[in-house]
Amino acid sequence: MATDEFLREYYKRFFPFDLYYRWMSYGNVEPWRFANREFAYGLPGDIFVRYRSFFDAAEMKADVVKTCPERIDIGPIYNNLPKHHNTNPLTPRERELCFDIDLSDYDDVRSCCSGAKICEKCWKLMAVAVKTIDRALRDDFGFQHLLWVFSGRRGVHCWVGDEVARQLDSTGRSAVAEYLTVVRGGAEKCKKVILPESKPIHPLISNSLKIIDSYFTKICLIDQDLLHTEAQALSILNLVGDEKLKNEMVVEVNRQCRSEEKWQAMEEVLDATMKKKTNRKFSNCLKEIKLQFLYPRLDINVTKGFNHLLKAPFCIHPGTKRVCVPFNPESVDSFTPEDVPLLDKLISERTYSSSEGTENKAAKLNNKAYYRDTSLAASIDVFEKFVLNMESSWRGKLKEIDDQRMEF
């Protein structure tokens, strides 16, 4: 079976169109929400088609199965039908607050891989990012409806579906993005995190450090071995900021062999300096280093942009052929990109299942969706739970609208 046939079979049998409609219609409180949503297709030959829109799940499924796009992107909800963009001007009205984190932005941290390559060691960087941003969005902003999705190759996306998040204007989105941005500057900038010296550490930073501290030794000192060579150690010591303090650390670090021992030596020098109370100016220097290496590196343009397109959950990554699956942020430590379903594997799983006896097939297909017997089932469950939680929050609003109508 050719790849396009696999893809068409996937859209026909696996892609959760009904759950998509339940998600993006947002309880149908406003009927235009799903109809005015933009979808975009990536087609063979680097062709990109924008402004697809549908009235319901059935129309969307029919068009996707017929067109068989290599990838699907999701845009905002407009004031008019996107399909009529040539005759009616489009202005974005709503869009989920989205976040994009990519492992390629951590190449200065990763010694195990670079670029598009990933492994179990560097995936831990994504685990830290997911836990840190998830905590901030829930605790600092009060958002409840977060969908975390593996991008299909080396990154993660987060979709925030709360009404207040969807209705943020560009200024509001920029404010959220700026609040969550701690690591600043490109490859040309050496020191990318500077904490204020005369003020208490902000709760965002202190809460983030609680997460980062639990991973720092394993990721930075053991897996990535960031202080292994003299040159590596010096590049990190250059982030200290105070020449006298740095030189004292260099002496002690050079006496050690392993990265763990070298970092411990740096901590001991800093502690001794702070006890003297002669110079508390750089008391946060090691915290800054931890943040620089492990704090999430957001693509803030994805968050700021009101009409930015983002890869759809459950579409197939064109390069890896893996499904862009949702996952539970609480279980991100056990999530393994290598175990994410591949397109051809999914089709073969279902083919094998369908070859079983009639009695077993009947039992399995009774009130169960087609994908329930495959490795996609757990990801569908995560998505369904996300939708169900949102639907429970809509019921109150729907009742409020019904009560208002009855008053008339």
TrEMBL record:
MF-aspect GO terms: DNA-directed RNA polymerase activity; metal ion binding
SUPFAM superfamilies: Prim-pol domain
Gene3D superfamilies in UniProt: DNA primase, PRIM domain (3.90.920.10)
Main enzyme class: transferase
Enzyme Commission numbers on file: 2.7.7.-
The UniProt record lists the keyword Nucleotide-binding: no
Transmembrane segments annotated in the record for this chain: none
Family recorded in the similarity comment: Belongs to the eukaryotic-type primase small subunit family.
Keywords carried by this UniProt record: DNA replication, DNA-directed RNA polymerase, Metal-binding, Nucleotidyltransferase, Primosome, Transcription, Transferase, Zinc
Name this polypeptide is given: DNA primase
Lineage: Eukaryota, Metazoa, Ecdysozoa, Arthropoda, Crustacea
PANTHER family xref list: DNA PRIMASE SMALL SUBUNIT
Pfam families named among the record's database cross-references: DNA_primase_S
InterPro entries in UniProt: DNA_primase_S, DNA_primase_ssu_euk/arc
GO cellular component, one term: alpha DNA polymerase:primase complex
Gene Ontology BP annotations: DNA replication, synthesis of primer
